[in-house]
Design brief:
Helix content is 42%, strand content 19%. The protein has 331 residues and is α/β, with parallel strands linked by helices.
Length: 331
Amino acid sequence: MLGERASHHLCEATMGNTVLVTGVARYVGARLATALAADPGIDRVIGVDTVPPTAFARSGGAQLEFRGIDLRSSDLAKVIGTADIDTVVHMTLLSGPARSRSALKEHNVIGTMQLLAACQRSATVSRVVVRSTTAVYGSSPADPAVFTEETEAAEPPATGYAKDAVEVEGHVRGFARRRPDVAVCTLRFANFMGPGVDSPLTRFFAQPVLPTVLGFDPRLQFVHEDDGVEVLRRAAGEDHPGTFNVAGEGVLMLSQCLRRAGRVAVPLPSPTFRVLGELARASGLLDFSPEHQALLTYGRAVDPSRLWAELGWTPTFSTADAFADFLARHR
């Protein structure tokens, strides 16, 4: 039944769709744009970012275009207003020390507000997909064993990328209330993992010696890059309104990850771990942000079953499989 419903949704996709994807200069965004361009139900894919993608495949049936646009500029509204955009996939929630905190917040929150305002004025946009993060749940010793989409964070994120994600989701919910005719899908992804992923967590696991927090062994969940792109592709081609957790089946303890990776663990008292993280971030060696430090202390696990039931589909890679595929490339 679920598989039949998913197939029915796919068949209902309108031929000649035009999809706009933000964040195509990043790995997952570029892969998604390429996958959408190969979809026979899509006529045109417009990729948006401030810099051109390095791996923007030109194969596939759809016309694949790149527009160098800052989300905060008026040029984005012009594209949405003139290109007959049907679907918008928003992928540009950024983290990292490459920009100042104020610049990141302006990009993440103000950029999203500008994008949603352009969508609200559009007469053609009928579907909006937003890539969010399970970091909205935070990581604390008071967390439940597993977060569902309705679970409130025990300690809501107060800083950084995670706080931006909470604010972004608030604006997305506001947009959904103002435009009930638009199918709005928010996807809360666990950490991406795979041979092509370059993230703070993959860079952490690539180090030969890894600091850990003395007395803690956090649970971690991953999404393989292939499954993540497939979820986004399906969400862009079908109406799945609502908020969904996205994670591979199962969890791995940090100690299991270290053993499988053959890494040397150096347990440190929590205050020393935080200081080391701040030094690593300041030096540019690792993006050891407060939310990553909390994750590597308390961990986090979410229940993705709602999404699998909604899609009538299950991921190819479990959390353990995704980590194994990452290790196979990086050994």
